[in-house]
Every structure is written in C-alpha cells, then in structure tokens.
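Contributing new records

If you add data, match the layout below exactly. Sequence lines come first and carry their own label; structure lines follow with theirs. Keep one chain per record. Anything else will be rejected by the validation script.
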Amino acid sequence: MWKYVVKRILYMIFVFFLMSFVLFFLYNKIPGDPARSQLEPLKATLEPEEYQYRYEKLREEMGLDDPIYIRYGKWMGGILTGEFGDSYVYRRPVLEVVKTPLKNTIFINIFAIALALGITIPLGIKTAVKRNSTFDKVVQVLTIIGYSLPVFIICLLFIYFFAVILGWFPVSGMSTPNFQGTPMEAFLDRIWHMVLPLGVMTIGSLGGMTRYVRAAMTDALHMDYVRTARAKGLKERVVIYSHAWRNALLPVVTLVIGWILSIFSGSLVVESMFGWHGMGKFYIDALNNQDYNVALAIQMFYIVISLIGYLLTDLSYGAVDPRVRVNE
C-alpha cells in the first residue's frame, strides 16, 4: 500500500513539473505584451522617449527580456518557495489576489455539491429499484431535459421567473450594496443572493449524476448475489443498501470524488451571469488582461488538485471494494 502511494507521489511530481513547463511555454507564446498593455492607458500622457524608457524598464522588471528557460527557472523557484509572483493588473502578490475568489467559489460549491449529492444518489437508487415505472420514466425525461439544456439557458430561465416575474431573489451580485447588519444578517443576505446560482448549479448536475447512479444500481440489482440475498429472505432495504449499493458504488466513486474536488474550480457561465466573483470568472479575466502570473498560478493549482483527486480515486477503490488491492 505505502509502496504504491510513494510511486504515485513520484509520478505526480514528474507530471507536475512536466505540465508546469508546457503551460509556462504556452502562456508565454500567447500573442501580446503584458508590459505594453500596462503602459497603454498612459501612452497619451507621455512623451515618446519617456514612454519607450518606461516600457523597456518595465519589461526588465517583469523579466520579459530573459530567455524562456531562465524565466521558467525563476518562476518555478518562486513556486517551490511559496511565491507566485505579483499580479500585473492588481499590483499585489498572486496569493492575495486569488484568496477572495477562491473563498467565494468554495463557499457556493460546498452547498451545491452537498445538495446535488443529497438528491442524485437517493433519486438514482430509487429509479433503479422502480425501473420502468411511471416515476422512473418521469425522472428520466426530466434528467434528459436538464442534462441537454445549456447552462446559460437555465440561468436565463431562473433569472426571468424567480427574479423578474416573481421578484423573490436578486438578479445578480453577492450581497446587497451598502448592507448594514449583524454578521448573521450578512450571512443570510449572502445566502439569499446565492440561491439562484446555487439552483442552476444543482439542476445542471442532477441529470448526468442521477442517470449514472441509476445505471450502476441497475447493473448491480441484476447480479447473482442480489438474487441470492433475496432468496435468503433478507429485507429489501438490506438487499438494496448493503448488497447492491455497495457494489454499485465502485463505478460511481470516481465521479463523486471528481465532483467533490470541483469545489475549488468555478463555473464561468454561472459566475458571469450572476455576478459571482469566483475562480472561473477570475481565471478568464486574468487571461483577457494578460495577467499570466495569476492565470498560471490558478492553472497549476488545478493540476495539483487533479493529481490528488486521481490518487484518492485509486485509493478509494480498495476501501469500497475489498476485492481491489491497491498495492501495485
């Protein structure tokens, strides 16, 4: 077991450095000049000689004149010591800039995943148990509709019905402007603003996950060990949850762990439509503004999360199914 974990960690380190070099090379080949984009708003107020002087000095400060391998070495050396550089746009350390959108994304995704898992797993199990019933057919139709609709369409529908027509929730934003109240009232105000994006994120994830759980449970319920358990006279609840669900969980666990790790990422569409300052929108803004230190830091963070997720997925197989031995 530990030998396998050590091998996987060494493999993760190799992939991390390989991907870091590839991404650093690609980001630095993107057309554009971060130094020039920063000075462009001041161009009209500067003399040509002063503009050129500032431009050359800024490129030197940003290390843009160094060969790419030297720039990569400096950048990676900073990462290994916990320094991700400064944001070109915000003129602050990257870690300080990323902190707020990361907190916002984690905050809303924890609720979204807990709500989605609390609905999809029981719903998928029940549809598998009541396969081909009216309830199952209705759920299948609804999940197909939810799975097929683009996220931005669901966003528009939610905004139109719940914000414009009914007026129950705000159209966008994370809190009421100039809100004054107790910490608990501020928290409830934020929850009130989060209801619509949270609903969209939940609806968007129900279709695929419910159908996945249903398929896994359907296969498990047709296995011989389930027939044997029923022949022994075991209660149907014991057969479903102690026998069938335990074995159906193996193909589902990969999706569930990946889903849980997605709390650190963000949804560009949902965050943009509802004005939620999260990682998805922040990452795209960094790319549009050529703030490559921020974009690279976010991308490397996602790579680390993905590598850890793959390791946890493999290890979870042994916990879910005793027949699986994670030792090779």
